[in-house]
Input
Amino acid sequence: MKLLEERILADGRVLGENILKVDSFLTHQVDYQLMKAIGQVFATAYAECGITKVVTIEASGICPALYTAEALGVPMIFAKKHKNITMTEGILTADVYSFTKQVTSTVSIAGRLLSAEDKVLIIDDFLANGQAAKGLVDIISQAQASIAGVGIVIEKSFQTGRQVLEDLGVQVTSLARIERFEDGQVVFGPADA
Ligand code: 5GP
Output
């Protein structure tokens, strides 16, 4: 997605070996016009798949997921990282190791929100080693819902995430694919949409 790549080049900052900071338009401050355009690209890519729910994980997946859900005309569910007292029964959970926080947390979705009739599109902001998306695949499978694919805003294709998901039989659609960081600059490979 050309608009997204241009924005990454203009406003993204490479931190260390393998982190891209995009907190001026995606992960902290959010550009809703860009999110809306992202949502439309994902919705077009999965238009023929009969999607009934968009699922993501809090917090940074929520904005692209919500605009994707709007474009598809279906609800968006975000997996929660902390249980609260209103989540009393039928909770589906998975343990997810966070690449950026370097801790494992249990993420959960209320079981009654997903059923065997659902066809789910997973959306997330980044794909690194695939652990966040894998946890969502696990939860959705527990609900016996089917998975149409995983839509990723920014994939770092030098990490293992795509392979992890493809090994689970899940299709990945990334709007920007970073091949490598070179002298603090982002180098893109061909994106999926
Ligand atoms: P994974 O589970 O694929 O290893 O990592 C994906 C999650 O880690 C994303 O949901 C995102 O929150 C975070 N993440 C991974 N890599 C980056 C990065 O380079 N920059 C930012 N801002 N977040 C990242």
